[in-house]
Amino acid sequence: MDRALKMVYYDDVKVEKDIFAQLSLAEKHFQGAGMPRDESATRRILDQIHRQSRAFAAICYGYMRSKGIGVAEDLGEGQQWYREAAYWFNEEASSGESISANNLGYLYAKGLGVQENAETAAHWFEEAVEFGSVAALYNLGVCYLNGWGVPQDDETAIEYLQRASALNDPSAASVLAYLYLEGRGVSRDPSKSFEYNMRAARAGSVEAASALGYALGVGLGAERNVAESISWFEMAASEGDAYAQANLAMYFCHSSDLKLFNRGWTMLTHACDQGDVSAKYQMTQILIFGVPHREPDYAAALDIAMDLAELGHPGGYHLIGVMYEHGLGVPVDMVRSATWFERAARKGSANGQAGLGRLYAIGSGVEQDNVLAYYWLRMSSPAEGSQAYREMEAVLARMSEKERRVAEKYVAENPGPRRGSFGLKPLENGVFKSGTKSGKYKA
To answer: Region (Disordered) spans which residues (predicted)?
Structure first.
C-alpha cells in the first residue's frame, strides 16, 4: 500500500486542507481535466493558499511554475520557490510551530526545494507530533506502514493512525478503512472499514466518499443502497475524482433518460481524459454491449481494451475474451478467448474467474475439467442465486466423490489471486462472464 503523505494548513474555521490536493484541484480546474475549465475556481484556490503565510505563498508559486498554471512552466524556478518555502518552514519549525515542522518533513519526503531524505522527513514528522500536529501523526503512521525513513511496522503504523483518527483526521480514518478491509495488521472487518470511511467522508475526504460509493454500490460492509452510493460518488466526482466519475457514469449511462445519459457520458469522458483505468474499463463495456442511447462500437472498444491489457488491467483481459467468445467485432475464437479469460482470472477478475470456470465446465476452448471448473467458479465468490453460483452448484452435483475431495483439497491449497485494492476496483456490470487452458491444478 502506497498512501500519500500530506502537507496541510487549517482554514478560518479550523478545517484541515491538504495543500497539494487543493493545488491538484486548482490545476484540474485550470486545464479542464475531469471537470469544465474554470480559471476563476483556480484563482480562488490559489488565493486561499497564498494568503496563509510567506511559506505557503512560496509553495503556491512553486507549484504554479512547476505545472505552468498561468505562467510559463519552469521546473528550475519551481524548485527555487520550494527552497524559499523550506527556509520559512524551517525557521518556524525551529520555534516549535507544529504545522511548519510537518510541512518541512513533507518537503524532505518529496525532495521539493531540499535534498530528498526519508529519514530527515520522518524526523520532522516526529518533531511535529511532539509539537501537537495531528497531520504529522498521520504522516508518521504512513511512514511506518511503508517503511519510509523508519522501520516498516504495521503495529506502530496503526497506533499512530488510530491516534490521528481519534482527533478527527480524515486521511487517517481513510487508511484505517483500507487496512480493515484488507485485513492488514488487523482482523479483516468490512463493517469496521465502512465505519472508518464514513467518518473520513463526513470530515471531507474525497477518497473516502468514493470508497463509500463503491461499498454501498456492492453491499460491502453495509446493506446495498444505490441511492446513497450515487450520493457519495457525486460528492467525490464534483471534486474531480476520476474513479467516482467512472462509477457514477455507469449508473447514468444505463439510464433511459437522455439527460442522465449525457451527464454520465460527459463524466466518463472526463475520467478517461485523466487516464483513469476504471473509466476506460467502464467505457469499454458500454462500447461493447451498448446502452439505451449508445450503439455498440466494437472497433473503439477493442482499441481501449487492448490499451487496458497493455497496462495489465484484468478487466481489459476479460473484455477482450468476451469479444472473441461472442464474435463482437472479431472472429469467434474460443481458444483465444480462453487465453484472455485465464489472464483475467489469474489477475483477480471475478468475471474472468466465473467465465473461466464455466468454460472448463462445458469444455469450450479448453479441455473439460470439473475440478478446475469448480475451482474457478468458487474463486469468483459468486452471490447466492447468481448465474455463476448456479453453475458452480451444477458442477458440484455432477462430480464424483473423488473429484469433490480433489477439488476441495485444491481450493484449500490454492487460495487464489487477491482482488484489486478497495477504491480501485471498478463496479462490473456482469453482462457476459467468460474464460482457458491451464495446467492441471497448478496455482
So the answer is: 412-443
For the record, the C-alpha cell of 56 comes out as 505557503
CB 294 within 8 A of CB 54: no
Query: Distance between CA atoms of 374 and 379, rounded to whole angstroms?
Result: 9
Residue 417 is predicted with a pLDDT of: 65
Domain CATH for 437: 1.25.40.10
Q: Which domain holds residue 349?
A: 297-443
Count of structural domains within the chain: 2
Q: What is the CATH number of the domain that holds 75?
A: 1.25.40
Beta strands at 16-18 and 8-10: parallel, antiparallel or unpaired: antiparallel
132/272 Cα distance (integer angstroms): 41
User: Looking at 165, 189, 214, which one is the last position of a domain?
Assistant: 165
pLDDT tens digits, one per residue of 122-167: 999 999 999 999 999 999 999 999 999 999 999 999 999 999 999 9
In a domain, 409, yes or no: yes
Residue 302 contacts residue 320 (beta carbons within 8 Å): yes
* Separation CA 125–CA 161 (nearest Å): 13
Tell me which amino acid residue 74 is. Answer: D
- Cell triple for residue 434? 467468460
Tell me the C-alpha to C-alpha distance, in Å, between residue 144 and each of 7, 140, 149, 278.
Answer: 17, 6, 8, 29
In angstroms, the CA 70 to CA 156 distance is: 43
- The C-alpha cell 483481459 sits at 317
Residue 433 lies in a domain: yes
Report the C-alpha gap between 216 and 2 in whole angstroms.
24
SS3 call for 294: strand
Strand partners, 10: 16
Nearest partner of 233 among 220, 219, 215, judged by Cα = 215
Cα–Cα distances (Å) from 199 to 226, 244, 303, 336, in that order, read: 20, 18, 40, 46
Specify the pTM: 0.71
Count of alpha carbons within 13 angstroms of residue 352, beta-carbon side = 27
